[in-house]
Design goal:
heterodimer; A: 548 residues; alpha/beta; Beta-Lactamase; Four Helix Bundle (Hemerythrin (Met), subunit A); 4 domains; 5-stranded antiparallel beta sheet; 14 helices; 49% helix; B: 125 residues; Rossmann fold; 5-stranded parallel beta sheet; 20% strand
Chain lengths: 548, 125
């Protein structure tokens, strides 16, 4: 027979008085071997008290039916440790009754009592201990689950687990908030139903499920249940064991707003630099329109004087006609001649031939000037247009042109601009942001040239080249400016790094450009030699940012 | 004045030169124009002028620099800068010190005529 596991505590409720009342039972229990602690109690209340201590492994009701019955027996059965009934009754009825009362087992006192009892008790003790151990393990698992659940639910990021079909198995509260769904309503629904404009196979999650692809921070959009579109950064990985995928995503609305603010700030900074150039560009046409208007007013005065003479002449003619046949013709003709001479003299004096032609010329030139101002304002509006911040296919040659025409107002006196555009496919992009990149690069190129010229006059060259390249488009902006020191070349994309004098820029231009290009999943490279100039090359994929 | 005053107008913007001509048309000057500082200097090498009126922002050379050269070439010539570029003339700039008058762009016709008339009269006396 097996040895009892460690210390075994058994409570024996016996009906009879005296130490020998349960001698046979005690003798049988010594067969258990090992450490056994036996407490003998003689009434049900004491038995219940002993059992409730929590240290008991089994309770033996040794021929104790008179004491242990009714509610007390029920309490004992519910207390936890197994109840083993010991009975003298040879009939089946006693055993049945015992099991009905909640017995774990029932032993009949017979010739083999001493062998049977220890086996039964040991079995019950083992079961009870196993059960206790299991419930501890279950509690631990429950605690661990609750702990994990707490972490998952309280994550600042949305966490969603989907099965192989994309149906949601687990979702935390952040996921419910971002997707705008009531608590607990996500489970069972298909995740990519929320993604904007992406069929199953196009969405990162779909591709994770079908190809096992992993995504880290892919930018995409979901349409919340109330219809509002939310930008999110999505990471997902396949769950190899379960065949599904886990997706973690963050609401990027706030980050996007900050990015827009930074962009706007930097845009304002470069516009500040451009403003002087633009003011000059507007001022020239304003200058001659202003002077021309003044002159045209004078011309109008001259012409009005001439008109008065014409009026005099007409009156003289009317006088002659109205004088009737009796009047002397000579006087009337004399009046006409005088008026005509006065007109001729005035035409000569005011040089009205010239006035007339120059008036027309001044009008034409002023119209041209107004048109130029209109054009500059339009360029400016095109450049800073907010609506072009949408992701849409754009002709980057056009974007470069509208940016260069603004930049040109600033640089025209010291720069020769060369454009070598290749034929480009439309590029899916945030055109407004890319224009910002181009503007930054052009402003830098111009400033590098100014730095090299050092106010000594002369010009530098900026060359803009575009060409299709590797499923994308390459744009290079080359200048013949001062160049970038090798030690600075690694730092130029760092935020707030600048070698410009105070007020010439915040040092955000290139870092902003870098993050814009990266957002488009493109590249930006620089090659530069001090004294020779710098070339920035931007490569952008035709498809634009994935998942966007 | 026995002789008609000769005035050189310099601006890279043809239309500005046209407008200046119109403004000064009845002032009785002989007006000569140049569209680049280089062209202006070439004219100054071979002809005398009583006044030079120049724009500031021009390719190759600024108006301030041009007028400083004019001061060396023909010291008696009146030198006027006409500019919308407020920072063009900074106090302490020794080139700028050679300028007799700065006019804003856009200019007022009366102010332009008046300033030029006064500067020329001061030189004639």
């Amino acid at each position: 027979m097996e040895k009892a596991p460690s210390l075994v505590r058994i409570v024996v409720l016996t009906r009879a008085e005296g130490p020998d009342s349960c001698r046979d039972t005690l003798d049988a229990l010594t067969q258990l071997g090992g450490d056994v602690e036996i407490e003998i109690v003689r009434d049900a209340a004491a038995c219940l008290a002993a059992t409730a201590s929590g240290q008991v492994d089994a309770v033996l009701l040794d021929r104790a039916s008179p004491q242990a019955s009714g509610p007390v027996l029920e309490a004992l059965a519910n207390a936890g440790p197994p109840l083993v009934f010991v009975t003298d009754d040879a009939g089946e009825g006693a055993a049945l009754e015992a099991f009905r009362s909640g017995a774990a087992d029932c032993v009949r006192v017979g010739p083999d009592y001493a062998e049977v009892l220890p086996v039964v008790v040991l079995e019950q003790v083992r079961r009870w201990r196993q059960q206790a151990a299991q419930s501890v393990a279950e509690r631990r698992i429950r605690d661990l689950q609750r702990y994990n659940d707490d972490i998952v639910q309280n994550l600042n990021s949305a966490l969603v687990v989907v099965d192989a079909e994309g149906r949601i198995e687990t979702a935390n509260t952040t996921a419910e908030e971002i997707l705008g769904v009531e608590r607990g309503r996500l489970v069972g629904r298909v995740l990519w139903d929320w993604f904007v404009g992406e069929p199953r196979d196009g969405s990162p999650i779909g591709r994770t499920l079908s190809e096992g692809a992993r995504f880290k921070g892919a930018e995409t959009e979901v349409r919340r249940s109330d219809g509002i579109v939310i930008p999110i950064g999505l990471s997902c990985s396949p769950l190899a064991a379960a065949g599904g995928a886990v997706a973690i995503f963050q609401d990027l609305s706030e980050i996007h707003q900050l990015q827009r603010q930074v962009l706007q700030t930097e845009k304002m900074a470069s516009i500040g630099q451009l403003a002087a150039g633009i003011a000059h560009e507007i001022n020239n046409p304003m200058g001659f329109i202003h002077a021309n208007l003044f002159q045209m007013a004078e011309y109008l005065g001259d012409l009005r004087q001439a008109w008065e003479r014409v009026d005099d002449l007409q009156k003289a003619v009317q006088d002659l006609e109205g004088a009737g046949p009796a009047a002397p013709v000579g006087a009337g003709i004399e009046g006409i001649r005088q008026a005509s001479d006065a007109l001729t003299a005035l035409v000569r004096e005011l040089d009205l031939d010239y006035v007339q032609t120059d008036f027309a010329k001044a009008v034409r030139e002023s119209q041209d000037g107004a048109e130029r101002i209109r054009h500059i304002v339009k360029d400016l509006r095109d450049f800073s247009h907010h609506g072009s911040d949408d992701l849409a296919p754009a002709d980057l040659n056009d974007c470069l042109d509208s940016t260069a025409s603004i930049a040109w107002t600033m640089m025209k006196h010291s720069v020769v601009l060369e454009k070598n555009y290749g034929e480009l496919p439309p590029v899916r992009c945030f055109a407004g942001q890319l224009k910002q990149v181009f503007m930054n690069l052009l402003v830098n190129a111009y400033q590098a040239i100014e730095q090299k010229l050092g106010g000594a006059g002369g010009t530098g060259t900026i060359e803009i080249c575009t060409e299709p390249k590797d499923d994308g488009v390459a744009i290079s902006i080359r200048d013949t400016g001062a160049g970038i020191e090798p030690t600075d070349q690694t730092r130029i994309f760092d935020p707030f790094f600048t070698t410009k004098e105070v007020g010439a820029g915040m040092g955000l231009g290139l870092s902003t450009s870098y993050s814009i290009v990266r957002r488009h999943e493109g590249r930006i490279d620089v090659s530069s030699r001090v004294g020779d100039g710098t070339t920035f090359t931007v490569w952008l994929p035709v498809d634009g940012p994935a998942g966007g | 004045m026995t002789r008609v005053a000769r005035v050189l107008l310099v601006d890279d913007e043809e239309r500005i030169l046209g407008a200046l001509r119109r403004s000064l048309r009845r002032e009785g000057y002989e007006l000569v124009t140049a569209q680049t500082p280089r062209e202006a200097l070439a004219k100054l090498e071979v002809e005398d002028f009583d006044a030079v009126l120049s724009d500031h922002k021009m390719p190759g050379m600024t108006g301030v620099e041009l007028l400083a050269r004019v001061a060396r070439l023909q010291p008696n010539t009146a030198r006027l800068l006409i500019t919308g570029w407020a920072q063009a003339v900074s106090p302490g700039d020794k080139d700028a010190a050679t300028i007799d008058a700065v006019l804003p762009k856009p200019w007022e016709d009366a102010e332009l005529k008046d300033t030029l008339r006064k500067l020329l009269a001061a030189r004639a006396s």
